[in-house]
Specification:
Blueprint: H1 5-22, H2 29-52, E1 54-55, H3 81-86, H4 94-101, H5 105-114, H6 123-129, E2 135-136, H7 148-152, H8 169-174, H9 183-194, H10 206-210, H11 220-226, H12 234-240, H13 245-264, H14 267-270, E3 271-272, E4 275-276, H15 283-286, H16 318-330, H17 335-348, H18 353-375, H19 381-392, H20 403-422, H21 428-444, H22 453-461, H23 463-470
Parallel strand pairs: 1-2
Antiparallel strand pairs: 3-4
Helix pairs in contact: 1-20, 1-21, 2-18, 9-13, 13-16, 13-18, 16-17, 16-19, 16-20, 17-18, 19-20, 19-23, 20-21, 20-22, 21-22, 21-23
């Protein structure tokens, strides 16, 4: 999307194994919150307009004078965007394949275990494997999978105007086009499936995963890069501004945490009968071998960020850990508050659902404030290096005790390095030495069943000296 050819290609090579393992694929606080809530309301209004229109279907974008060419020879945009969306040999084709996946043996087996019949006609699956549409135009087809309008919004309001002479991006947005150049807006759209929301068919609960669905994973900048269908050329930057990869990463982490805590606070999603909804908890805290010999040793490793009793499943805090690294560098006046709230939330989980939800709401407000703060930050070269070093150093690494947080850590260092290369702040050649160490860290999380926390820390920790040398 916005990485040089060298860094983008290297990233794809580094993350393929991880994607296979994953199944593929908070100034013054009062004023700060007020400004953030206003921004959130604007984004919610935009999302509402996008959702309320008619979905016209992929066929409405497929003309040879629009986005349906076989070659990227358009004067303003590539015009082969649909071809790239459908490209089978790259991660960029994953959205187009989403519906077809439902007919594969694994999906059919999941449907049988869940008792929902054919997944291709099950609302539980179609919410994310197709494009949810309140109103459907004549060219809409569920079989198009995650189509153009799933991300860009229902096109009935802006389809004709967006190519009209003299139009502007702002006008198109006012008519329902989702402003995906806005990190908060993009994260909100992506997370509807890559984490979930409370709409029908858009929350992968523990029952669905127990039936065989892959674990949900997401990192905004990296996933955006791998599914990009456009070029960020001079025209794009004139209309929408230059993308900042570091900002995308930080905002994505904050919005992901906000979304997770928001869903956790909803009674209809956070409980399943007499049990809590295990989707919110760290998979590897429970999914380990059970020993019953007399000399059995616990697999649990002490985690200083989780003040909870031994044996209690911890909340999946992968995004909390990443934000911990970002906030201490990019919003240091909020670092103490944020760290206190994360620890308080973990501790409240041992007290009961009421205290846990109250603590979650406090932490969620800080995450929203951080998203707003980061969306207005440029993330300097020095700040980016400091965040990378924090993630890979002893300041954060003792919290990498479970697979999910470790995957986020290596994706973060990867994204931030690529952002520095794209911004021209580090040369591709200079980044090569660190790239090799990043790939070693990817290898340490390539297989969830053989994940070993201490080995991962060593692999990632080896990057610290190189990061310091690059500075």
């Amino acid at each position: 999307m916005h990485n040089s050819g060298l860094s983008a290609v290297s990233r794809v090579g580094g993350v393929r194994a991880v994607f296979a393992a994953l199944g593929c694929l908070a100034l013054a606080i009062g004023a700060f919150f007020i400004a953030n809530f206003a921004g959130a309301e604007r984004l919610e209004a935009q999302a509402s307009r996008a959702a309320s229109g008619t979905h016209m279907g992929v066929g409405s974008c497929a003309g040879s004078t629009c986005h349906g060419r076989n070659e990227a020879d358009g004067e303003v945009v590539r015009q082969d965007e649909l071809w790239r969306w459908q490209e089978e040999s790259t991660p960029g084709g994953a959205h187009a394949r989403a519906f077809r996946v439902l007919g594969e043996p694994r999906s059919l087996a999941i449907g049988k275990k869940l008792g929902i019949g054919d997944p291709r006609s099950a609302a539980m699956c179609l919410g994310c494997h197709s494009t949810p549409a309140a109103a459907k135009g004549p060219r809409y087809q569920a079989s198009d999978g995650v189509s153009c309008e799933a991300c860009h919004g229902a096109a009935s309001g802006w389809l004709a105007s967006h190519y009209a002479t003299g139009t502007s991006h702002a006008r198109n947005v006012s008519q329902g086009l989702v402003p995906l150049e806005n990190a908060q807006a993009r994260a909100g759209v992506c997370l509807d499936c890559h984490l979930g929301n409370d709409a029908p068919g858009q929350f992968v609960n523990h029952r669905i995963m127990a039936a065989g669905h892959p674990r949900i994973a997401f990192e905004l900048d990296l996933f955006s890069t791998l599914t990009q269908h456009h070029d960020e050329d001079a025209d794009y930057r004139q209309r929408k501004g230059k993308t900042n990869s570091m900002r995308m990463w930080a905002v994505g982490q904050a919005i992901a945490l906000e979304r997770s805590l928001s869903l956790f606070g909803k009674p209809g999603l956070a409980t399943e009968g007499v049990f809590p909804e295990f989707y919110f908890f760290d998979c590897h805290s429970c999914h380990r071998r059970i020993y019953d010999e007399e000399d059995a040793r616990p697999a649990k490793i002490s985690n200083p960020g989780r003040p909870i009793p031994t044996g209690m499943p911890p909340y999946n805090d992968e995004n909390m850990i990443m934000l911990s690294a970002a906030v201490r560098i990019a919003a240091p006046e909020l670092a103490q508050q944020y760290e206190g709230q994360t620890r308080a939330f973990h501790a409240a989980m041992a007290q009961g659902r009421g205290p846990a939800v109250e603590a979650a709401n406090r932490l969620r407000q800080t995450a929203m404030a951080l998203a707003d703060r980061f969306s207005r930050s440029d993330f300097t070269r020095a700040q980016t290096f400091s965040i990378m070093e924090s993630i890979a150093s002893e300041a954060i690494s003792p919290r990498f005790t479970d697979y999910e947080g470790s995957v986020q850590a290596v994706m973060a260092v990867d994204t931030l390095l690529s952002g520095l290369v794209t911004q021209g702040q580090v040369s591709g050649g200079a980044a090569t030495s660190l790239r090799a160490q990043i790939n070693q860290a990817y290898a340490a999380v390539a297989e969830p069943n053989s994940y070993k926390p201490l080995e991962f820390r060593r692999a990632l920790g080896g990057a610290v000296r190189t990061i310091r040398a690059l500075q």
